């Protein structure tokens, strides 16, 4: 049966010109839905496995039940970020809904690029907004206290490792490993199996690629991007030590082609048995434990490695936001309400297996016996990692703004991307870590100066 969404009048925010140059992006399928009629919407989303599963399920379930056709444009992470920022900043209206993260949400909301969702959440009792995990919900709240996005899945980060390989070679993974211990284990297990490397770590340029795990390492090593007084710290001893450690670890015991390896490449390496350990998003566990995964049942999961902090996992969500200029907000909410619902999780669990459920967002998921049984290897570690994530105090010193694996300012997308290119170059052996961070410090200081002068 078709849902009956709120009939509140559409509020269109004024278009805001994006600060700085936006990268050109590939054009997607569909277009102009913001000004066209009919029960159809255009959705722009990242090409992560759980998103492509949603794409496959939509026509036979959501469209069949509601009559609403969904035109998907699916792109890799870096490309989709550029295209979303371009379309939403210009309020072009080509896409009604897009996958945005907890980094973009508050920034886009402040600029008037997103629809407020609170009225829909109040009127849609079936959605059960109270079931959404508190850290995730807070991360999608604007500065005005209103909600502007709803999660498709949430994640933190943890360390994944091959239990069968560790057992065969007499290695023991600590319940809460330090990065020092992880490096020692990587050296022990590197080449222990034919064609297997010790660890896989992201090296691909992008603020959402190599910068995400690297910054979590920086935090626990005692570093930070900026002090609370907006002093750039990328060439500080702590930031330098953490970055040198990360680069050395992946160069000495990591995957081949590390400078071009992101989340997708490391996931594939782990599934194909090419690496013994992988530090990355908790969302990867579902793919590792899927029915068709060659390594299912042979993966162990422990909290993100630490050094000076009690925990170091990040907090992230891919969420659904409605473009303010869309004149199909009610229809867009019907899609979001379904795609982030308990109903959709049940559908995935029953048709694709419970380990494939886009988890990390609902309390009820972690209380579901079917999910607990199939995700027994990782569900509790994932839940605990999300609950322990602290965006306000992720390190050992105060920060000027919240953020664990990113800094929640508009300039960070550009800054993080530029710094990532320097780090990736160091991973590729084209320059030293010291040189990479010297250039990065100059970039960060230019941003910090703007905030110091405000």
Question: What does this 3D model show about the protein?
Answer:
By secondary structure, the chain is an alpha/beta fold. It folds into 2 domains: 176 residues, D-Maltodextrin-Binding Protein, domain 2 (3-Layer(aba) Sandwich), CATH 3.40.190; 224 residues, Periplasmic binding protein-like II (D-Maltodextrin-Binding Protein, domain 2). Helices cover 42% and strands 11% of the residues. It is built from 18 helices and 8 strands. The protein has a 5-stranded mixed beta sheet. The protein has a 3-stranded antiparallel beta sheet with strand order 6-5-7. Helix 1 links the parallel strand 1 and strand 2. Helix 8 crosses helix 9 and helix 17 packs antiparallel against helix 18. The longest helix has 20 residues. The N and C termini lie far apart (53 Å).
Could you give the topology of this structure?
Layout: E1 40-46, H1 49-66, E2 69-75, H2 77-89, E3 97-101, H3 102-110, H4 118-123, H5 134-139, E4 150-155, E5 157-162, H6 163-168, H7 179-189, H8 211-220, H9 237-253, H10 263-271, E6 277-281, H11 284-288, E7 299-303, E8 316-322, H12 329-339, H13 342-352, H14 363-367, H15 369-374, H16 379-388, H17 412-427, H18 433-452
Parallel strand pairs: 1-2, 1-3
Antiparallel strand pairs: 3-8, 4-8, 5-6, 5-7
